[in-house]
Amino acid sequence: MTFLSNLQLFYSRKIREALRNPAFVMMTLTIPLLYLLLFAPMLKRFTGMAEFGSTNVLNFFLPGMIVVLAVFGGLFVGFGMIDEIRQGVIERFRVTPASRLALLFGAVLRDVTSVMVQAIIIIAVAIPFGLKVNIPGLLLIFPLIAMLTAIFSAFSYALALIFKSEDALAPITQGISMPITLLAGFLLPMSLAPGWLQVAAHFNPVYYAIEASRTLMSDHIDAQVVMEAYAFLIPLLGLVSWWAIRKFKTVIS
Amino acid sequence: MSQILYTSGLQKSYKTGKETIPAVNGVDLEVFSGEIFGFLGPNGAGKTTTLRMLTTLLQPDAGEVSICSYDLYQQPEKIREVIGYVSQSGGADKDATAWEDLILQARLYGMSKREAAARASDLLAALGLESIADRRPATYSGGQKRRLDIAIGMINRPKILFLDEPTTGLDPHSREQLWDEVRKLRDLGTTIFLTTHYMEEADALSDRIAIMDQGQIVLTGTPASLKDAISSSGTQASLNDVFLQHTGRYNKSAQIA
Known about the structure:
The structure holds two protein chains of two kinds.
Chain A: H1 2-19, H2 22-39, H3 57-75, H4 78-87, H5 89-95, H6 100-126, H7 135-163, H8 166-182, H9 195-201, H10 205-217, H11 223-250
Helix pairs in contact in A: 1-6, 2-3, 2-6, 3-6, 3-7, 3-10, 4-7, 6-7, 7-8, 7-10, 7-11, 10-11
Chain B: E1 3-16, E2 19-32, E3 36-40, H1 47-54, E4 62-67, E5 70-71, H2 76-82, E6 83-86, H3 98-108, H4 113-126, H5 142-154, E7 160-164, H6 172-187, E8 191-196, H7 199-205, E9 208-213, E10 216-221, H8 223-230, H9 239-246, H10 249-256
Helix pairs in contact in B: 3-4, 5-6
């Protein structure tokens, strides 16, 4: 019970912090629109090409955009925590009997919330542009997106605790974000890639999330692909959380 | 007086590359209930590392620690219940008002909403902070920020409050005001464990002091006894003289001269 009450306290704190930051609110709401506005018009020419799904090209590309929102919405959150470490806020919480797991997941759930809001916006706005939604598919996409955000968010917070410096965190997160998004086929499907790239993609959580989201948004859901994604992301979330919580318990100095 | 904090043979070293640097190298301390214990030492002496071990933030490499009879290794959760800690950087949340921050801290110690509100009101009043209750830290003065940090550290009515250089960066007036607050806390029964760079602060506040240098305690006693010990007839030594003599800084500068 302490855990749940602590989680609620830390979550409310992070949500309040976010809502008080006008830049954060503005960017959270406009980034999904920018993806659609700047990218969707380029898709017209792909209509009908087999690689991009025979029916609806937006249904093919939108999952990639949502997954990238999740990656970016998680991977860069560590910067905020470096600031908190510097202020002494994290240390202050660690001296109380508060649950460390709640301290971490209060922040992670805030990040998941903001990505969920973005995903809902991008889907809602894409409908008038021709996105076809199937509700069961969406209900299976959201947990995947939430898990992916949580994985990158917990990972980013752990990195922040280890390095405690923007100078270290910036190159690391940049260095990670580029290959994992490209190597997931977020723009072009991995089926266009040569064999070695396809093999490499199978070690990438983002790849599974995109593949599963695509099939879940298509007319013919491939249950195998969806199961693979869940089977990859659930244990990975457990692993990253375990690692991050260890850092929360021991690292800060 | 009863003992509230006890350490024996406390050790911690840091690894940087291949080198192992002993930061705390066998520290024995004893703090008694109800006193202000001044913990002094030059930069890099190991004060903050010691403090971080005593407040459960850092695992010691070796040594015994007990606080309020709880063992640091066996019962860190119990220790967290009975201590308060105000770090050098403070800990007030820049995105929260003083009121929100105090309520959160109180709730983390398991207080109900009503208890938390009562405790927060009491502390704001006691520390003269009512005017900033609904404002965020960007608008506070240095003294107000520091007093809020202390209020946060006091929320659980700690048996022992650790203050790490509480007056660094404050103007003389705010510093004296803070000294009064610290004395008030002691008069209400809180044991205070205070680190500081300022000798006159240690002298003015502490019932007893310990001087740490190069990871070890080099001297312990009341300010008066330490000063008397090195005073010759006619001249009264200051705590600064005591400090310089025992941290070896006199000898080194004499050699350079």
